[in-house]
Amino acid sequence: MNILEKIVARKKVEVELSKKIKSIADLEKEELFDRTSVSLSDVLKSTSAPRIISEFKRKSPSKGIINGNVLPEIVTADYVSAGAAALSVLTDIDFFGGSFDDFLRARKANPNIPMLRKDFIVDEYQLFEAKSIGADIILLIAACLEPSEIKSLSQKAHDLGLEVLLEVHNSEELAQSLCDTVDIVGVNNRNLKTFETSIQTSIELSAQIPDSFVKISESGLSDAETIFELFAYGYKGFLIGETFMKTDNPGAALVALQNNLSQIGNSNPHVI
C-alpha cells in the first residue's frame, strides 16, 4: 500500500466517523454554509500576469514537519496582503497536520478571498463539510477517484455553489477524468511514486488541456523564472506551499517572489 492508498483508506474511516458526529442537516445549519462563494476561476481568467495561490501547510508525508510554529490567521493574512489570488488550507489531520480550525481561522481573517479546502475528497459528505467551513473551492484528485466519482462529486459541488479543482499527474488521468463540471485543472508536478518534482509535467500536459478550463500548476515551484515559463504555456495560477512555509515568515517569502515576478514582467513586457 503506497502513501496515497494509506491516506485514502484513513480518509474513508474518518468520514464515516464524522457522519456519526455531525449529520448533513447539522452541517447545513452552520453559519458559513449559506455564504456566497467567491470564484477563483473568474479571478484567474481575467489575469494578465501569473497569480499565486498560497498554501498553509504544517507538514507533509514526504517532508514531515515543515513549520509547526505558525498561526493560520497570521500567515494567510500576510499572504493576502502580499497579493495572493487565493488561499489553500490543509484540513487533513493525520498526514498534513491540518484541521477545520485552521481553515476557519484563516476564513475569519480573510472573508473575501477564494479559499480552497485542501484535502482528499472521497465522499459527498465532505462537500457539505467544505461548504460549512466557508470554502469556495474543493479539490478532486484523479489519482484516488474513479472518473464516475469525479463526475458525480463535481456536479454535487456545483449544486452547492462550490468550484472544482481537478488535480492530475499525467495524461492518462487527464483524459479519463476531465468533465464539464470541472472548473480548474491543476497539474501536479510531483510524481506520486517517487515524490520527485519536474515542471516538465506541466509543460507536457498544457496542450492537452482544452482552453475552456483554467489551468494551474502545482508543486516544485519556487522561482519567478519557472513561473513565467509556465505562464507562457497557459498556466494562470501557481499553487505554492512548501516554498513559503519552510521559511520563518511565509508572507515575506511571497512578497519576495511577487517582487521578482514584477521585475521580470517589467523588464520583459512581451512575456505578459
From TrEMBL:
InterPro entries, per database record: Aldolase_TIM, Indole-3-glycerol_P_synth, Indole-3-glycerol_P_synth_dom, Indole-3-GlycerolPSynthase_CS, RibuloseP-bd_barrel
EC number of this enzyme: 4.1.1.48
Top-level lineage group: Bacteria
Pfam families linked: IGPS (PF00218)
Catalysed conversion reaction: 1-(2-carboxyphenylamino)-1-deoxy-D-ribulose 5-phosphate + H(+) = (1S,2R)-1-C-(indol-3-yl)glycerol 3-phosphate + CO2 + H2O
CDD domains: IGPS
Keyword Hydrolase: no
GO MF term list: indole-3-glycerol-phosphate synthase activity; phosphoribosylanthranilate isomerase activity
GO BP terms in the entry: L-tryptophan biosynthetic process
Keyword list, A-Z: Amino-acid biosynthesis, Aromatic amino acid biosynthesis, Decarboxylase, Lyase, Tryptophan biosynthesis
UniProt keyword Lyase, yes or no: yes
Residue stretches making up the Indole-3-glycerol phosphate synthase domain: 4-254
Annotated metabolic or biological route of this protein: Amino-acid biosynthesis; L-tryptophan biosynthesis; L-tryptophan from chorismate: step 4/5
Protein name per its UniProtKB record: indole-3-glycerol-phosphate synthase
Organism: Dyadobacter koreensis
Taxonomic placement: Bacteria, Pseudomonadati, Bacteroidota, Cytophagia, Cytophagales
